[in-house]
Amino acid sequence: MSTVDEVQQAVMERMLRGELTPGTWLRQDDLAAQLGVSKIPVREALHRLAASDLLRFENNRGVVVPMLTAEDAAETYGLRLAIEPELLRRAVPNLTIVHLAEAEMALAASELKGASVPEANWAFHAALYGAAGWKRGMAMVQSLHAAVAPYVALYTQGLGGAATSDDEHQRILQACRDGDAERACSLLEVHLREAAAALDHVFTEDTDAGTR
Amino acid sequence: MSTVDEVQQAVMERMLRGELTPGTWLRQDDLAAQLGVSKIPVREALHRLAASDLLRFENNRGVVVPMLTAEDAAETYGLRLAIEPELLRRAVPNLTIVHLAEAEMALAASELKGASVPEANWAFHAALYGAAGWKRGMAMVQSLHAAVAPYVALYTQGLGGAATSDDEHQRILQACRDGDAERACSLLEVHLREAAAALDHVFTEDTDAGTR
DNA sequence: CATTTCGCGATTGTATACGATTATGGAATC
DNA sequence: GATTCCATAATCGTATACAATCGCGAAATG
Known about the structure:
homodimer, mainly alpha, Arc Repressor Mutant, subunit A, Four Helix Bundle (Hemerythrin (Met), subunit A), 3-stranded antiparallel beta sheet, 9 helices, 70% helix, 4% strand, globular, DNA-binding
């Protein structure tokens, strides 16, 4: 694996965990020193992430985690609704015990204290979608998850919003076990719509947490 | 506009035109000299394109335009079918005379001799989708167009396959003028399915053009 | 004559270095 | 005392330079 890939993966993990809050400036020298490499592979990795709008290069100012507007979040979930059901539909016939076990593990991991909800969320969805064998689609969906991860972390920490989400995950998983692709897709669509609505509250509520 | 952005745009244009045939090795020094910059912004731009799998960095060997398998092409059109109707559906209510004129211009441009069919194709679709205001979705769809561009160029050069495609474009445009989003989406889906089938012939036919 | 091995050339990948731009703190002025 | 201006420090973006890797060809060997 290339140096660039390692840096990219390291930063991506932090994004999926929602650790990199919007508005944060990523200093390249720090990242380079932290990972024991030079600036150049760091910049190349950041450019890769910037290609999916996960980061933004501002002229002579550096790399920043962009703040999402309510419309951005709506777009993200609109795209998830467009892509993920299609991925799941194609995945279900190919699901093996390994995929299902991975998904179960992700659900279990999300229960643990100190676990990152958006990261576990992605792990669960990725375990199922992986069976579709759509590499490009996976990368797209991963970037969508990463884009909203800090906001998802926000509203799942605030209240027990993860509980209902977890229940929906369980039902989706059961439909997958049954090999019922259409039911799984329907459940997934409802799941995404609810998540979109919940996230929208973060932006429209009185709290300015989403815009800060 | 940054140096990296200029390089990225230059290479992306060549990709959308289908000029960069799969299997081609992009030599960084050549590109740098050609654009009058150094290797580093070139590499950063290439990394941006590699993030969407439009290019591939191979270890210590350089950057290559990846060859698509039949499955890759099917995935690309599967994703286009998932995303583009959604984009069009959201675009139609916002369409202005400007968007429609842009789309008409793209159709006219595709008729000209020496014009790049995939590039005009993208210009047409982009003109319409732009009204949706979905920046991320646009970037995704653009990368999908770029990925198959050389193959589209292949089968449109071979025969007058562009004629039927052009007719479908006209009908989609008319539905957009009428503000009939659902009809436009239905026509788009048919259009994409036909294009996918046509492209599939490139891979499954006796000619090895797709695998060379 | 085929095959393997060695060495050279070419290209990449990374580090170091430097000019340019921006942010920040303090001093001067109103 | 507040504000503006300037100088300094810090960071970025790009160019240059160098080490590492890969491929290809020639030579040697069976």
